[in-house]
Amino acid sequence: MSSARSSSPSDSTRASRGPVIVAAAVFVVLVAVSGRYGYHRDALYFLAAGHHLAWGYPDQPPFTPFVARVMSAIAPGSLPVLVLPSALASSAEVLLTAALAREFGASRGGQTLAAVAMATAPFLLGSGHLLSTATFGFLSWTAVLYLVVRILRTGNDRLFVVTGVVAGLGLLASDLLAFLLIGLGLGVLISGPRDMLRSHWLWVGVVIAVAMWTPYLIWQGQNGWPELTVSRSIAAGNSGSSTPRWALLPFQFFLANVWLAPVWVVGLWRLLRAHELRWARAVGWAWVFLAVVFTVSGGKAYYLTEILAVLLAAGAQPCVDWARRKPGRLRSWMIGAGIATVIALPITLPLVPLAQLHSSGVVAANYDAGEQVAWPTYVNEIMAVDHRYREPVILASNYGEAGAIERYAHVTAYSGHMGFWWWGPPRVPASTPVIAVGFPSSFLTRFFAHVTLATRLNNHLDVDNDEQGASVRICTGLRGSWPSIWPQLKAIG
Question: Which residues contact 303 (CB under 8 A, 6 or more apart)?
Fold first, then answer.
């Protein structure tokens, strides 16, 4: 693979300053709003996981907990600092989208349109103000796609070494990247260039990526592959952000800027059909593979959105050319995109005042919005019960509750949910009273002789999130020892 695959004009097309301005604006907005509500339940979990660093967790690779550990060490208790890497990753995503457009021969206007389309995508903004595995996964997908597109265009297969390093890091952030890599490989088999598969640089890159990913795979194997259990639970609809299988494709229009949907639709068509992008056909087939796999397996809608950048990049220039053919068309189109963005912003970002959040409809449209509010209030209500007893065990039904208790009350919380189960049972006598949060009485009476309702959590905002109305119960008379009942409390999914 030493000769160029395409005479794309991107070699002579200068990079645009427009995407830099757009990326900077995204960074400023995300940082400005990051502390308006509070920690998302996942961020509270990542903070706890960061204090139990490992090569793997039942539901994720190690990168995001490691980031949480580093940022919390830099500025303990600061939410804006904690989510700063997400804002940086989102800004980099905008720049990489524009760089991809340049690889496809886009002019400065095309590069800027690609950047704007990415910057106004609800998925980017919605994940970019949170500490989220999705944010880092999104960036790793786009970085790999940029390198692969450049290899396909130029024939510079030495870049496979860099691609292997980037893929290895990406797999430690989100193992969903493995599906993209498989899809790209199948795309090459279907549409070429098949001589790429004979490049020894490709296999060097594969070895690097697999070697970097291996510690996580070993952890999963040693612990019974809990990630597969999590995946089945998501497919069954047990996650707050799960989507029905039929909704995966329609949701792509809402996770991107719906008014700018023609950009990625045209991009997909070009990758699959356009003669001038025949050299990049493998990327189009990768999208087809991912759409089928994630639909059949019941993946979340955003899984497929992670390949959005390359579609926007491929479609940007034709859309600019179309808009410029008629005076005023480009301006009208951009005004429409601006209106669509303004409508979506209160749903994707924490802009609605907390006092009005319950009546705004935002939580119904965006599950994650409700999971960022009232954690200090909930913890205060739990600790008001805790203070009636001397050093009780606090047992939470999910990682959000447990993480919040550790973050705000600075005491150890226990849970059978996800990584908390791996961190072990309480090491206290069976006679120690237990404050159980979020469990139904019928579940607790299997393990305790006496279960009494103490209170129910109330966020005092009328926001219908997962913890609103959750029970707080006092439990005594443990039926056995903690090590004996701990396996029965395991909740993966």
Answer: 176, 179, 248, 290, 294
User: DSSP readout, 126-181?
Assistant: HHHTS--HHHHHHHHHHHHHHHHHHHHHH--TTHHHHHHHHHHHHHTT-TTHHHHH
Q: How far apart, in whole angstroms, are the C-alpha atoms of residue 402 and residue 459? A: 17
- What tokens does 7 get? 């005479």
Contact 203, 210 (CB under 8 A): no
Q: What separation in angstroms does the CA of 67 have from each of 46, 49, 134, 206, 256?
A: 9, 10, 14, 25, 27
Domain ranges of the chain: 9-348, 375-489
Please report how the helices 261-273 and 281-297 are oriented relative to each other, as an axis angle in degrees rounded to 10.
120
CB distance 448 to 475 below 8 Å:
yes
Tokens of residue 184, six digits: 């790209």
Q: Which residues are CB-neighbours of 285 under 8 A, at least 6 positions away?
A: 183, 186, 187, 190, 191, 272
- Would you say 127 and 26 are in contact if contact means Cβ atoms under 8 Å apart? no
Global pTM reads 0.93
pLDDT tens digits, 427-480: 999 999 999 999 999 999 999 999 999 999 999 999 999 999 999 999 999 999
Spatial strand order of the sheet with 471-478 comes to: 414-415, 393-396, 434-437, 471-478, 448-456
pLDDT in tens, 175-220: 999 999 999 999 999 998 999 999 999 999 999 999 999 999 999 9
